[in-house]
Structure formats: C-alpha cells, structure tokens
Amino acid sequence: xxxxxxxxxxxxxxxxxxxxxxxxxxxxxxxxxxxxxxxxxxxxxxxxxxxxxxxxxxxxxxxxxxxxxxxxxxxxxxxxxxxxxxxxxxxxxxxxxxxxxxxxxxxxxxxxxxxxxxxxxxxxxxxxxxxxxxxxxxxxxxxxxxxxxxxxxxxxxxxxxxxxxxxxxxxxxxxxxxxx
Length: 180
Hints:
The protein is an all-alpha fold. The chain has helices spanning 2-41, 46-50, 55-58, 62-84, 87-109, 113-137, 139-179.
C-alpha cells in the first residue's frame, strides 16, 4: 500500500512540474512575440537623439531595465496561468503587450509624441485594472507587477514632459509667427 501512495505522489508532483513547465513556455512565447514586435518598430536615430529627454533618463541602462521587465512579464504570466487560469486577465495582459507595441510604433516610427502619450495613458489604465485584480487574487505576481507599474509611470512621466514641451513649442511658434 505504501508503494502505491509514493507512486501517486510522484505522479502528482510530475504532473505539477509538467504544468509549470507548460505555463512557463506559454508565457515565454507570448512575451517573445510582444518583445519582437516592439523591437521591430523601434528605430533610434537622429530624431530620438534630438529629443530633450531628462538627463537622469539618458543615464538609465534601458536594455537591462527592459530585459528585467520582460522577465517579470514571464514570471507574472506563469503565475497567472498556473494559479488562476483567468482568461480575461490573460487577455488584458495580452492587450497591454499590444499597447506597448502601439506606443513604440507611435513614438519611434511615427514620431508622434501626442499619440504615444495617449497610448501611455491607456496603458496606465490597463495597468491599474490588472494591478487591482492581482492584488485581490495573486499577491506574489502583484509584488512583481508593482515594479512594472513604477517603470510605466516613469515612462509616462517622461512622455508627458516631452508632450508638454512640444505643446509649448507649438504655442510659442504660433504666437511668434503672429507677432511678425
């Protein structure tokens, strides 16, 4: 009888490990697709170098930070798939990933700071909704999610500063041209 119980425990442990593995593979695939799409639309060039970004922002190791953000995405999605299996939340996370791609396309390809700022506001709304859901149901994933929220808030602040700068410059040009 004891051997049967041990075999049953081993099978359950093996199935649990197998389920974790599949959750990680699914999360990695989703994050890889999003990161690939976002990196495809990011084109750094003279336009980006000419932006009046805050000095402290230019000093940040952006490649390392984004790598950490994507690793946290994999961890969070794995926890959600394994622990809760919430399809609406996974859809929201997928839309959030697509929102990042839209932001990158608006900012880096279209060079539209206003459109990028609008999409950043939408991303912040999705971030708050997902954060509330995670806080209620999955505290471990929520703790990791906080770091992503802080990073998105920082990026939105920088985007806001750029947007205000463009608005002020446009208003100044209109006033200046009208004075001639």
